[in-house]
Amino acid sequence: MRVLAIDTALGACSACIVEAGETVPLAAESIPMDRGHAEALMPLLDRLSAQVEGGFESLDRVAVTVGPGSYTGLRVGISAARGIGLAAGIPVVGVATLSAFLAPMMVGDRRGLFTAAIDAKHGHIYIQAIAPGGRTIIPPGLMTYRDAIRLLGSGPILVSGSASAMLAAEARAQGVEAHISDVSGFPDITWVARLGALADPTQALPKPLYLREPDAKPQDGARIARQ
């Protein structure tokens, strides 16, 4: 199975093309950015397609990160993935951003609670924690650092994601052993592809995973009353 993976959920515009079961992608590119995903994504995808024999026509599946993340970034990536899937007649699957951070930590013999933490601003984080063996300790959610530490218990914890340094510091201040696996502001795109290859297209739908409401809300007082 040949998978195209796309990630525009957080601080990068990333994509890769991977043969399922292979560790090295056929083509990959990541451009760190907080804004401008819409302008960068399609040229990036064109460059990847040119590096792979058969281009987009050789693909069997498209995987895309569905959140949590930037509202604009998510729409950009998901729209592109759906468009490519429709044009190529292949399935499109969604991969949760937190899962993409968790997956690399869960490979090998590591101890502690595997924890993915993404900065959600205003003193909050998006978080998910899984114990060795796969038991969910904290399901994907939005909460304060203090609440996260309380739910993580006595640790130790192994943390990845853009909020990993802050969460680890808060944990240590509360007497909880914490180790940082990765402080990247965006997931490894090859892991998005690997998770996408394993996903069930009937369950992992390519639609945004929003864990909180948008910051911008309509102003009720400014509305014009209907006649």
Strand and helix map with partners:
Elements: E1 2-7, E2 12-19, E3 27-32, H1 37-51, E4 61-65, H2 71-88, E5 92-95, H3 97-105, E6 113-119, E7 124-130, E8 136-144, H4 145-152, E9 157-160, H5 164-173, E10 178-182, H6 189-198
Structural overview:
- By secondary structure, this protein is of the alpha/beta class.
- It is built from six helices and ten strands, in the order βββαβαβαβββαβαβα.
- The strands form two sheets. Strands 3-2-1-4-5 form a five-stranded mixed β-sheet, sandwiched between helices.
- Strand 7 and strand 8 form a beta hairpin.
Roughly what fraction of the amino acids lie in strands? 25-35%
Judging from the principal axes of the Cα atoms, what is the shape? globular
Q: Stretches where pLDDT falls below 50 for ≥5 residues?
A: none
Number of helices: 6
Gyration radius from CA atoms, angstroms? 19 Å
Instruction: Spell the H/E element sequence.
Output: EEEHEHEHEEEHEHEH
Helix percent reads: 25-40%
Report how far apart the termini are.
57 Å
Mean pLDDT: 91
Structural class: alpha/beta
Number of strands: 10
Major sheet summary line: 5 strands, mixed
Instruction: Tell me the strand order in the biggest sheet.
Output: 3-2-1-4-5
